């Protein structure tokens, strides 16, 4: 039997994700499953979520749990407490689990932080994106520098791990203004930083506005300069880059994301949530109202189900793994999946070696300094 056909002992997922779709406003660049201005659906959503969690229960305690969105902290204190009660009742956590929540700076206050602390949240990921009013207005975000800085300081007093997201290459942004964002962020009490170039995804308002030339984009060279600036500023602030877009203080890597990148399975609940359990990838209906309606009718909210073969699994794990700065442990991947990706992708990887984008470091295949900004191209060589 060829090794690609032998059955797989799929690992029991150690991670879980729950999607909360509510937001105050849909930002023009956002392509997530979001519902804005419909807070009256909070109760119906929570009932639906509780039902879904009972249909696909998690038996063994997980090592990481991520409450994302949307904006989970957009829920009122009353509904946020009910949400956390449901989560606590349905998702068992290991004693040292990482328990994260996404939050918007404007939602952060003492009452919500006390609630998060009471339910054992130990990591908060704040969608700051920028500290500058003009850029925040372009991105349609509803906070300013004072609100964002105050939220970070307040959160750091009660939650041990504080992460923020920053967007670069927004329309009209300069290298100087990006530098100011980085300087402001790195002077605040954060333990983790994620930076992303703004993307224009089909179906978003930003996509349409760019098509009409209402929004300008940056050329690749400027984006690259901004990316390299983030890397050097983070390094100077003792934030180690451990993945293409992720920087962390000591022992502050996002363990939940490490589970995704290692491709060892995760549970997912809520509208649009995508899980990977027992070799099958599932995606729930993206529309929050459809999700709620289906769950309330006793119908599964899953829209797509795709069984993953052993080769696809190994190649996808390699594509994500190579984006980690420590590199990809090819032998371990072979051991765990039964697939040796190197001969399988020899033709695609040869140019990456020739151009000096990847190199061997012991048994790890890793990006070189030249390859780090070109990680997407290297990654796609595995797919
Ligand atoms: S706050 Fe975040 S999730 Fe909500 S609409 Fe804006 S980008 Fe999307």
Would you kindly provide a written description of the structure presented here, covering whatever features stand out?
Belongs to the anaerobic coproporphyrinogen-III oxidase family. HemW subfamily. This is Heme chaperone HemW. It is found in: Cytoplasm. Keywords: 4Fe-4S, Chaperone, Cytoplasm, Heme, Iron, Iron-sulfur, Metal-binding, Oxidoreductase, S-adenosyl-L-methionine. With 383 residues, the protein is of the alpha/beta class. The chain has two domains: 15-261, pyruvate-formate lyase- activating enzyme; 326-380, Arc Repressor Mutant, subunit A (Orthogonal Bundle). The protein has 15 helices and 17 strands. A nine-stranded mixed β-sheet has the order 9-10-8-7-6-5-4-1-11, sandwiched between helices. It has a three-stranded antiparallel β-sheet with strand order 12-13-14, with no helix packed on it. A hairpin with a 2-residue loop joins strand 9 and strand 10 (246-248). The radius of gyration is 21 Å and the shape is globular. Bound molecules: iron/sulfur cluster (SF4). Iron/sulfur cluster (SF4) binds at residues 23, 26-27, 30, 32, 34, 69-71, 104, 127.
């Amino acid at each position: 039997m060829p090794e690609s056909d032998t059955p797989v002992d799929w690992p029991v997922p150690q991670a879980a994700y729950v999607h909360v779709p509510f937001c105050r406003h849909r930002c023009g660049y956002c392509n997530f499953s979001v519902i804005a201005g419909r807070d009256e659906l909070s109760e119906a959503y929570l009932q639906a979520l509780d039902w879904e969690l009972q249909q696909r229960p998690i038996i063994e305690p997980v090592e990481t749990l991520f409450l994302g969105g949307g904006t989970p902290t957009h829920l009122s204190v009353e509904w946020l407490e009910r949400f956390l009660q449901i989560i606590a009742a349905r998702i068992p956590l290991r004693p040292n689990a990482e328990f994260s929540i996404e939050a918007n700076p404007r939602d952060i206050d003492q009452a919500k932080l006390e609630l998060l602390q009471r339910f054992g949240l130990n990591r908060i990921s704040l969608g700051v994106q920028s500290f500058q009013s003009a850029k925040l207005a372009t991105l349609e975000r509803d906070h300013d520098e004072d609100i964002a800085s105050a939220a970070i300081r307040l959160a750091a007093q009660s939650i041990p791990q504080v992460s923020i997201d920053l967007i670069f290459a927004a329309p009209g942004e300069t290298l100087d203004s990006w530098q100011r964002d980085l300087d402001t962020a790195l002077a605040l009490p954060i333990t983790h930083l994620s930076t992303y170039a703004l993307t224009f995804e089909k179906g978003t308002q930003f996509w349409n506005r760019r098509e009409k030339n209402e929004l300008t984009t940056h050329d690749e060279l400027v984006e690259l300069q901004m990316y390299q600036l983030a890397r050097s500023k983070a390094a100077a602030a003792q934030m180690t880059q451990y993945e293409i877009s992720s920087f962390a203080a000591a022992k502050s890597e996002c363990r939940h994301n490490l589970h995704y990148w290692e491709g060892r399975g995760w549970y997912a609940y809520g509208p649009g949530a995508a899980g990977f359990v027992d070799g099958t990838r599932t995606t729930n209906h993206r529309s929050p109202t459809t999700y709620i309606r289906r769950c309330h009718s006793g119908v599964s909210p899953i829209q797509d189900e795709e069984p993953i073969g052993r080769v696809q699994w190994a190649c996808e794990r390699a594509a994500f793994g190579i984006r980690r700065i420590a590199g990809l442990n090819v032998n371990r991947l072979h051991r765990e999946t039964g697939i040796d990706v190197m001969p399988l992708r020899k033709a695609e990887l040869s140019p990456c070696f020739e151009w000096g984008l990847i190199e061997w470091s012991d048994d790890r295949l890793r990006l070189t300094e030249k390859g780090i900004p070109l990680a997407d191209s290297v990654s796609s060589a595995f797919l």
